[in-house]
Amino acid sequence: xxxxxxxxxxxxxxxxxxxxxxxxxxxxxxxxxxxxxxxxxxxxxxxxxxxxxxxxxxxxxxxxxxxxxxxxxxxxxxxxxxxxxxxxxxxxxxxxxxxxxxxxxxxxxxxxxxxxxxxxxxxxxxxxxxxxxxxxxxxxxxxxxxxxxxxxxxxxxxxxxxxxxxxxxxxxxxxxxxxxxxxxxxxxxxxxxxxxxxxxxxxxxxxxxxxxxxxxxxxxxxxxxxxxxxxxxxx
Length: 235
What we know:
Order of helices and strands: HHHHHEHHHHHEHH
Number of helices: 12
Strand order of the largest sheet: 1-2
Shape: elongated
Largest sheet: 2 strands, antiparallel
């Protein structure tokens, strides 16, 4: 039996209550297909999305298996939950996912890995695992700079400049004075000079939250999860 998609107002995540005027997390996610899947699954199964835990080990074990036994198939769990496009499973970036997942996955590690997949760099050789995970999003850059002794405001401004690639074509001696004193053997400068775009962590977190919820349905509501794959990719 085909279950019709009932639809919901575009500004609401089912089961989530907002106590202030902050924007809902869903607006940070650019692919509404996965949001519609979640809304449909919530309606059909009666499961509130806010009740799905973000720390269920079975979910991260399932993602580990999907990474280890990846195929360039749109049916892969990484693709059906929005973490990767099928063509990304064949990319050099995905080798970093395999390396990182060997020690296990968690919510924060998936947020970092999603950021790694979407870093835009001038040279692929600049994206080794240590660099990629250290500077996987704008917020990671800011935290690193604060640990290096920069004041929070300067760290944020520098991270935002790096997010948009403003250091990518700038010689190190032209960098602001307050970051020229960073003493890390050129680790930050190498990353800054090769980074052309980063996502903010809020975006990456929103994508991973929805991916974890979809993976939960794939494990605990498999029939509904299979049915939801037939939802049309139309607004």
